[in-house]
Amino acid sequence: MTTTHRKDDEHVTITQGWQGRFFEDFGIGDVYQHPLGRTITETDNTWFTLLTMNTNQAHFNRQVGESSEFGRMLVVSPLTIAVAMGQSVIDTTQNAFANLGMDDLRLTAPVFAGDTIWSESIVLDKRESSSRPTAGIVTIRTRTLNQDGVEVLTFRRTFYVHKQGAAGAASQFPRAATPLALEQV
């Protein structure tokens, strides 16, 4: 969306950035390759393990990790899930207001510190909401790949998403008292 304001014969054009998909924008079979990959660091893994109070030492004790069948520490699974879900937001749930469920979650290969993960989603289903006329329900399947193209995670997710023009999806960006403009040199 582009809006133009006029002030003292000066034109200011505001071009809004990507606002995400609304219910009407989803098509069954559409695939979204989410644009941001994320390299998982040892610090990410340690902090997330501590934050979630996971006491399995395979995630934070190098000696235990090295003595495991993997030969090194594993990234804690909820971190992989959280990053994958976060990667999908830009394309799927930017305008959602509630997750309704996650199903068929599978951790299909281990993730290690230093791995870069990427996610993509396919739209499986969509329907109008019978209780909320300004929203719909969408179901997607997301899979996450490591830098070698190996799938490490897959899950289905169902969520409520606003329709275009829904009041709940209106931008909350404040109107500046003084518009941003090019300065004369």
UniProtKB/TrEMBL annotation:
UniProt-listed Pfam families: MC_hydratase
CDD domains hit by this protein: FkbR2 (cd03451)
Species of provenance: Pseudonocardia spirodelae
Gene3D superfamilies for the chain: Hotdog Thioesterase
Top-level taxonomic group: Bacteria
Identification of the protein by name: MaoC family dehydratase
Position of the signal peptide: none
Coiled-coil residue spans: none
